[in-house]
Prior knowledge:
The complex is a heterodimer of chains A (223) and B (469).
Chain A: H1 3-21, H2 29-34, H3 37-45, H4 49-71, H5 74-90, H6 101-120, H7 151-155, H8 157-168, H9 172-183, H10 188-195, H11 199-219
Helix pairs in contact in A: 3-4, 4-5, 4-6, 5-6, 6-10, 9-11, 10-11
Chain B: H1 3-14, H2 20-32, H3 34-51, H4 60-74, H5 77-105, E1 118-124, E2 129-133, E3 137-139, E4 146-150, E5 156-159, E6 164-170, E7 173-186, E8 192-196, E9 199-203, E10 208-214, E11 217-221, E12 226-233, H6 234-245, E13 249-250, H7 256-259, E14 262-268, H8 272-283, E15 288-293, E16 296-301, E17 315-322, E18 324-329, E19 332-337, E20 343-347, E21 350-354, H9 356-370, H10 380-387, E22 397-400, E23 409-411, E24 414-416, E25 422-424, E26 428-429, E27 439-445, E28 448-453, E29 456-464
Parallel strand pairs in B: 7-8, 13-16, 22-29
Antiparallel strand pairs in B: 1-2, 1-4, 3-6, 4-5, 5-7, 6-7, 7-10, 8-9, 9-18, 10-17, 11-12, 12-14, 14-23, 15-16, 17-20, 18-19, 20-21, 23-24, 24-25, 26-27, 27-28, 28-29
Helix pairs in contact in B: 1-2, 1-3, 2-3, 6-8, 9-10
Amino acid sequence: xxxxxxxxxxxxxATKAAAKLAKPVKGSREELESLDDYELVKRFTKGNSxxxxxxxxRHKRQVYNFIYKMVGKPEPADDLFQETFMRVLxxxxxxxxxxxxxxxxxxxxxxxxxxxxxxxxxxxxxxxDANVPGDEKPLRNLIPGxxxxxxxxxxxxxxxxxxxxxxxxxxxxxxxALVLRVNEGLPYAEISEIVGSPEGTVKYWVHxxxxxxxxxxxxxxxx
Amino acid sequence: xxxxEAKVQLPSYLIGDLxxxxxxxxxxHLDVDPQAKAAKDSMARQLLPVMNxxxxxxxxxxxSKLFVDARRELEKPxxxxxxxxxxxxxxAWRVAAVLVVGAVLGLSIYGLTPGNTIVGQLxxxxxxxxxxxxxxxxxxxxxxxxxxxxxxxxxxVDMDGSAALKVSRSGEETIVEILRGRVIVGAGTxxxxxECGESSIAIDAHxxxxxxxxxxxxxxVGQGAVVELQxxxxxxxxxxxERLYGGRIETSALPERVAKRRISLYGVGLRRDEFLDAFxxxxxxxxxxxxxxxxxxxxxYTGTAGNTADxxxxxxxxxxxxGSLLYTQEGDSxxxxxxxxxxxxxxxxxxxxxxxxxxxxxxxxxxxxxGRTDMPxxxxxxxxxxYITDASRNGGKVVVASALPAGTVLTExxxxxxxxxxxxxxxxxxxxxxxxxxxxxxxxxxxxxEVAKGDDSNTRYFxxxxxxx
Lengths: 223, 469
């Protein structure tokens, strides 16, 4: 066999081997991780708990972030996260792949969070225009110098807590639209599906929320 | 535009909601209106902590409890019995369907007898030929293109490396379904139908189409022996790196929208340092910096707003490289012609029709990649003139060069040679090209790179990736 033919043969063998290696064993964790969301839903509705776990691990960050930014504390957020995914599990037979799995799950997370607000009677809306204890302390003190935005600003825990507090004082529909759009970066079409309101309305809410927050933060000395 | 109008638009601008045209107009105004510029800077400072709010990870006990509860729930008989019923029902439907079809059409109809399910043949880049049957899924490894010849329609399909498709039969017609990657389809004497997600592409007889379906895909073989990470989020790539090479890569300091930016990374036989170098280079353009802390790394966001435009999960690009085609999605049909330099781009089910310059820009990389195909009916020179506008003045051409050195890692933002040298898109690259010592790196694909000869933009080189290490 000539050198070129030998090289070609080796390459062909390597190609075949790579193709073989690339297929994970059926039913293994690796195979489950390679499946799309709908396939995993189908698997766990047949009793495969590993498929459910892969799905939770895949989307836990986005779902938890949304819940946490709505409620602002880890303790209820952990409980609401569990409740969301248990509802996902129990209602999986109603899921249709017309909607993205994350959209469907965030709809559930939203309902769970709103139920919690209602149950705990937590959303007594306080306008950002109203004075609340602590407002007298100017936020400027939390920002080193008057430099352009930098990582230093991001590291100020106190500032972030202030901002989180301000966000919680927005009307709930503005808060959820703001979190899904500005923090989670979802497209308006998807947010519209999650909150069940038209895209134009959601855009208006986000715009209102941003304007109210910047106005409030400006009043508090963050300029 | 005046200061008041500019201020009204600032919130939308800063969160990336303005259309590119409106954003450009506002930016033009900000350059000449110091009052509006000061308002923008102030609002950007106020929005920064809002945009960068982080959340902790879900608590481990909460996750464990959820998994225990879920297992208990899934052990209930209702899941097991519904499964049995569903499976029985599915089998019953299949049996009924086969019986009905068999009774009505008879088993001798072409395509139903087992011997007639062969739809064509598959040829690897090394000339190995395999029989192709209806229902086969063909996946090409990274850097290994393959060719399909479909016997019923006479069509030919050139698959790039890291692509996947499925062939099926509908009566006498063979349908190609693209699952991911870049393919060039040349119809024979009959039109050829190609499906891709919700899109259907009917390629006219003797026409050639380029289809690029950029969708999330992840394949890692062994300890980095083959790495194909396509359109994966920055945080997911960090998790993959942890699993592959150990150590911790902290991403919690990244704003959520930055952590979710998508990157692609392709390599063979990657060591940790090679992987991380390519990763660093790919995320740099999103304002992400790496900081070493012993064996661990942490990623931080150094920029301000960065690119805040929506990013869809998948992008489909379709362009006729020769002749014409009919693109259809949910009843909406658009005819595209190569002579008009047309193309469509589909993001989140939204179809954008691009004509002349815009179509040419989107299709350019596909044309360069197609430069190496010897597809029947494909007139490369004419296609280059129609789609590579700056190369058309003096009769542009595409030249296929020898493969890149083994061990080169590709990301969409640049490449890393095995020597450690990093080259970003837009920079000079020194490699041996036919008739040149190097040129400007114009773009990177999973299967190779596009280079323009230094002083001669008429010549575009396609430099394929080497399949070996």
